[in-house]
Design brief:
Elements lengths: L2 E5 H13 L4 E10 L3 E5 L7 E8 L7 H6 L2 E6 L7 E5 L7 E2 L2 E5 L5 E3 L14 H5 L5 H7 L1 H9 L1 E5 L3 H13 L3 E5 L6 H4 L13 H12 L4 E5 L6 H8 L3 E4 L4 H13 L4 E9 L6 E9 L15 H8 L2 H9 L3 H4 L5 H19 L7 E7 L5 E4 L1 H4 L9 H6 L7 H9 L16
Parallel strand pairs: 1-3, 1-8, 4-5, 10-11, 10-13, 11-12, 13-14
Antiparallel strand pairs: 2-3, 2-4, 5-6, 6-7, 8-9, 14-15, 15-16, 16-17
Helix pairs in contact: 4-5, 6-14, 10-11, 11-17
Bound molecules: zinc ion (ZN).
Length: 435
């Protein structure tokens, strides 16, 4: 399926501009991601070499000659009696042009508009037999979310990066919601210290976490498509698999992996929910908390929504595969935190799922950072640190524009970014404390 993916706010701005444009045609940069199918990615970055011709028509849904001749792809948006319809064409380097099948609007609602063969607005491009016949199981969920929101939510393809306690809770929650496609990704195998509080048989020790989780989900509520990958998120196999998903959950336990997932989300225009839990200190000084950050593409990035605890160190680890392997081989969890509590992981995972539900139901309209903290008396405080700074102007973030929507063309820039020294503004307010 050939997909054109745009951050929703960016696409809405293009439509407004298009209606004011006397010639009725706009030429816009697009990033590209080429596998057997093609994804075109909306970007404001002039380094993108692809061009999309967007035009409007009240008479016939076909591209203008200028659009076909000069751009990599053409999109025609219907107006007046064709309002709500659109048509797309993709030029291939060899062979005949192909249809663009789907316009994917990444943001509140996560709407999908089918462009071909039926040029009509539809929010449910993949109505399968499960939806037609078997919704009784989810009747309570549908009652809570509304059927259209539930269908949009469960039709998305999700990647869960990190399959420890938090990732397992997120993946189980998504599978139980009835999602159709789930990618599980974790290079680690289960160790004895992972077993405590996890619903995993001791015989599983030594086996890859992602595979164990996939086996559990197949029994629980199997998604139509379920893949487990046992490699790092920086591996080319992970890159290829993640590119074909719609929505990322980052449940990793280190900032290097967190940064890698955040950059992929920006490059390929995908919403990201990053979850970090932390328990630090001892006795009355012990702090427990979590940071759950929903990062919408084209609006914010992980580095300007809370940032990382030690961004230069994260970059250093990602400079080369050798550096990454050396770092993870030398890690000892007890150096980084006092311990883990499944109750804290499950709390964070559930709130992350609520964010995804509210984004797709259009209750959440913007990138959101939720910070949880249990004080010494066990009192829980939930705050939204980014809202505290919204009244003061925020410094422009160079990272948002650096990678957003560049797709495969942005990968060399990512490599040089990881190798470069510290640059850009410090995150404001204070970085997330959880790890
Ligand atoms: Zn940013």
């Amino acid at each position: 399926m050939n997909v054109l993916a745009y951050p929703l706010a960016m696409f809405e701005a293009i439509l407004r501009r298009l209606m004011r444009e006397p010639a009725g045609v706009l030429f816009l940069p697009v990033g590209q991601c080429r596998d057997s199918d093609v994804q075109l990615l909306g970007t404001a970055n002039p380094q993108a070499t692809g061009l999309l011709a967007v035009s409007r028509s009240a008479g016939r849904l076909a591209p203008s000659r200028a659009g076909v001749d000069t751009a990599a792809a053409a999109l025609v948006v219907g107006t007046e009696h064709l309002s709500g319809q659109a048509w797309g064409l993709l030029r291939r380097e060899t062979g005949q042009p192909q249809p663009l099948h789907l316009l994917s609007l990444q943001g509140p609602g996560m709407h999908r508009i089918v462009l071909h063969p039926t040029p009509a607005l539809r929010s449910d491009p993949h109505p399968g037999p499960r939806h037609a016949a078997g919704t009784e199981r989810w009747s309570r969920t549908i009652g809570a979310l509304g059927e259209q929101a539930w269908r949009r939510l469960t039709d998305l393809a999700y990647a869960v990066v990190g399959c420890g306690r938090t990732g397992a809770a997120v993946a189980s929650g998504l599978a139980c919601l009835g999602v159709r496609s789930l990618l599980l990704l974790d290079p680690d195998s289960l160790e004895l210290h992972n077993l405590g509080e996890m619903a995993v048989a001791p015989e599983c020790t030594g086996r890859p976490k992602a595979e164990i989780l996939a086996e559990q989900l197949r029994v629980l509520s199997p998604p139509t498509t379920l893949h487990a990958l046992t490699c790092s998120v920086t591996h080319r196999l992970a890159l290829r698999a993640i590119r074909n998903t719609d929505f990322l959950f980052s449940c990793v336990d280190h900032d290097a992996a967190r940064l890698a997932v955040g950059v992929l989300a920006a490059l390929y225009v995908k919403p990201l929910i990053d979850i970090a839990t932390g328990i630090h200190g001892a006795g009355p000084e012990r702090r427990m908390g979590a940071d759950i950050r929903l990062v919408l593409p084209g609006e914010r990035c992980l580095l300007c929504l809370g940032g990382l605890t030690d961004e230069p160190d994260a970059r250093r680890i990602l400079r080369s595969q050798r550096e990454e392997i050396r770092f993870y081989a030398a890690r000892d969890w007890s150096d980084e935190r006092a311990g883990s509590l499944a109750s804290l992981n499950h709390t964070a995972a559930s709130l992350a799922q609520r964010m995804a539900e509210d984004l797709v139901a259009e209750r959440i309209q913007h990138s959101t950072w939720l910070h949880l903290e249990f004080d010494a008396a066990g009192v829980l405080t939930a705050s939204y640190p980014d809202r505290l700074t919204q009244e003061t102007p925020r410094a422009a973030c160079p990272h948002c524009a650096r990678f957003q929507g560049l797709g495969d063309e942005g990968l060399p820039l990512v490599r040089s970014f990881f190798s470069a020294g510290q640059e850009g503004p410090r995150p404001d307010p204070e970085p997330a404390h959880a790890t």
